[in-house]
Design a protein that fits this description.
By secondary structure, the chain is an alpha+beta fold. It has a domain of 126 residues: Cupredoxins -  blue copper proteins (Immunoglobulin-like). Helices cover 25% and strands 37% of the residues. The chain is built from three helices and twelve strands; from the N terminus they run ααβαβββββββββββ. A seven-stranded mixed sheet has the order 2-3-6-12-11-8-9. Strands 1-10-7-4-5 form a five-stranded mixed sheet, with helices on one face. Strand 4 and strand 5 form a beta hairpin. The longest helix is centred in the N-terminal third of the chain and has 26 residues. It binds dinuclear copper ion (CUA). The site of dinuclear copper ion has 9 residues, from loops.
Length: 183
């Protein structure tokens, strides 16, 4: 058999792979399986104990409908402009809409109050984007067709960046927004 044939994928490779696994291999397969189960159990544990893996309110949404809701949200709560971009300050307790689209976050600047609760709705008008709040490391996928609602209570004041952490095309790197949390 030539070397070419052996690597064709049609001809079985030479070897003894059909023999029962050796003792060491069986041990490692068990170790790997148990470790998988440990990590699997940690997912709900991180949610309950670690404050990670937040549960949200997910629903399907037509991208055009989400764009319309976001436009309405912007016109309802717009308080000014910065470089031609609306600055939006929703009242405490309100629904906040943040739209990801190629290649901006809209509205680009959100003003929130420290200690107030909001429901942050994230969705996309086109392709997958990634909501990443810098520097506090909150990361959520922003998916077209799905509204991901997250209950948030800002607990520190200051300026935070919203960056896109999912490659979404040529302008991915310019997709930067801002959340300003005031006391
Ligand atoms: Cu949006 Cu990368």
């Amino acid at each position: 058999m030539s070397n070419q044939e052996m690597h064709s994928g049609i001809v079985s490779p030479q070897g003894i792979w059909w023999q029962p696994a050796g003792k060491q291999e069986r041990v490692w397969v068990r170790v790997a399986f148990i470790w998988c189960m440990v990590l699997f159990a940690m997912m709900p544990l991180w949610h309950l104990k670690g404050g990670q893996n937040p549960t949200g309110i997910r629903s399907k949404v037509d991208p055009a409908a989400f764009v319309a809701r976001t436009d309405r949200f912007v016109s309802d709560y717009k308080v000014g402009e910065e470089n031609g971009m609306p600055v939006v300050a929703p009242p405490p307790g309100s629904d906040v809409y943040l739209l990801g689209r190629q290649w901006q976050w809209y509205p680009q600047i959100l003003k929130l109050k420290k200690g107030a609760q909001y429901t942050l709705h994230l969705s996309s008008a086109d392709v997958n984007h990634g909501f990443s709040l810098y520097p506090i490391n909150v990361n959520i996928q922003v998916v077209p067709g799905y509204d991901y609602g997250l209950r948030v209570t800002p607990n520190q004041s200051g300026d935070f960046r919203v960056i896109c952490n999912e490659f979404c095309g040529i302008g991915h790197h310019i997709m930067v927004g801002k959340v300003v949390v005031e006391d």
